[in-house]
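dude i think i finally got it to work??
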Amino acid sequence: MQIYRKSSPGNFYMYQLLYLSTAVNLMANDELDSLLSEAKTNNHEINITGMLVYHDGCFIQTLEGEKNRGFNSQVQRVG
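look at this
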């Protein structure tokens, strides 16, 4: 797990988290759709964006946003 900090105009810092994980079982398309829908809802509520890639039981995920309670909770959940 790696967290990067990049500056934006107005001294605003955007943090990025990139990590890899493995599913316990291979996931069907309907399970992936459900996971994606849940992630979109949760990420929107805590004002972060991201990307989720799945292939043969492996995930690559990127999250980015301001370093706030929502972002920190996601980092702790993953970490």
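The chain has a mean pLDDT of 83.
im so relieved honestly
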